[in-house]
Design goal:
Structural class: mainly alpha
Number of helices: 2
Number of domains: 1
Radius of gyration: 15 Å
Shape: flat
Oligomer: single chain
Strand content: under 5%
Distance between the termini: 30 Å
């Protein structure tokens, strides 16, 4: 039960961060397409970096 709640909190945190980043980019003057591309690139870079660190450790 606690593990599921912890997973829920992690997912909620990631969703909130994505929404806030999207709002920040759009407030800075980026359109929706640019915002989507930037967030996609940043998230894929984070995934690749995590995989690299996992492989090295």
């Amino acid at each position: 039960m606690i593990a599921r709640f912890r997973l829920f909190l992690d997912i909620l945190l990631m969703a909130a961060a994505a929404v806030l980043a999207r709002i920040d980019f759009q407030t800075a003057g980026f359109n929706e397409g640019q915002t989507f591309c930037l967030l996609s690139i940043l998230s894929l870079m984070g995934l690749a970096l995590g995989a690299l660190v996992h492989k090295l450790i």
